Amino acid sequence: MDLTVLAYVIYLAVSIGLTVWVARTLSSNGRIFLADVLHGDEKLADAVNHLLVVGFYLVNLGFVALYLKSADAVDNARGLFEALSVKLGVVLLVLGVMHLGNVYVLNKIRRRGLMEREQYPPVESDGWTKPNGPTPAGV
User: Fold this and answer.
1) pLDDT one-digit tens code per residue, 7-52
2) What does the alpha-carbon distance between residue 118 and residue 1 come to, in Å, rounded to a whole number?
3) Per-residue pLDDT for 106 more than 90?
4) Inter-CA distances, 30 with 60, 65, 67, 80, 102, Å
5) How far is CA 87 from the centre of its chain?
6) What angle is formed at CA 96 by the lines to CA 95 and CA 97, rounded to 5 degrees?
7) SS3 track for 37-85
8) Which of 118, 83, 107 is nearest to 30 (CA)?
9) DSSP classification of residue 137
10) The whole model's pTM is what?
11) What number of other Cβ atoms are within 10 A of residue 132's Cβ?
């Protein structure tokens, strides 16, 4: 078998495996954030989580497919390892950026949900509250 083809096979196997692992990690842990943000609506949290995972797969697997082609032929074992290290290193960086992007978005959504919950006063208003400090003369 040609070493270039072997490099392609190894690259695809490792890249797809890493993408699936990261997506599953995001899915299982991201669901907790989404359930909190969506005020315990489990069905909606599952639906949004699934959509995020599908988007993650599409972007990452699309990148893996586009980045498959190698400019140089692989002639020996050293070239095989060098080609794989560059390709897999770039895929890992892209997965890391996508992971951090997902965590950032989930955190922003969660913070917005927390801020919405804090907009309501903890007790009912009595219509008037005595001001702090000295009262003006004539009041």
Assistant:
1) 889 889 999 999 899 889 888 887 887 887 777 788 988 898 888 8
2) 63
3) no
4) 18, 26, 28, 36, 9
5) 21
6) 95
7) HCCCCHHHHHHHHHHHHHHHHHHHHHHHHHCCCCCCCCCCHHHHHHHHH
8) 107
9) T
10) 0.67
11) 6
Angle between the N-to-C axes of helices 77-117 and 3-37, in degrees from 0 to 180, rounded to the nearest 10: 10
Q: Which amino acid is at 74?
A: V
Joined together, the tokens standing for residue 27 give: 């899915």
Task: Give the up-direction half-sphere exposure of residue 17: CA atoms within 13 A in the CB hemisphere.
Answer: 7
Q: Judging by beta carbons within 10 Å of its beta carbon (0-12, 13-18, 19+), is residue 72 exposed, middle or buried?
A: exposed
The pair of three-digit structure tokens given for residue 51, joined into one six-digit string:
């959509």
Q: What is the distance between the alpha carbons of residues 129 and 98, in angstroms, rounded to a whole number?
A: 50
- Which residues, 6+ apart, have CB-to-CB distance to 121 below 8 Å? none
Instruction: Look at the block and give the residue holding tokens 């390709």.
Output: 87
- C-alpha span between 116 and 113 (Å, rounded): 5
The DSSP 8-state label assigned to residue 2 in this structure reads: -
How many secondary structure helices (H) and strands (E) does the chain include? Answer: 3, 0
Residue position matching structure tokens 């990261």: 22
* Tokens standing for residue 81: 């390892």
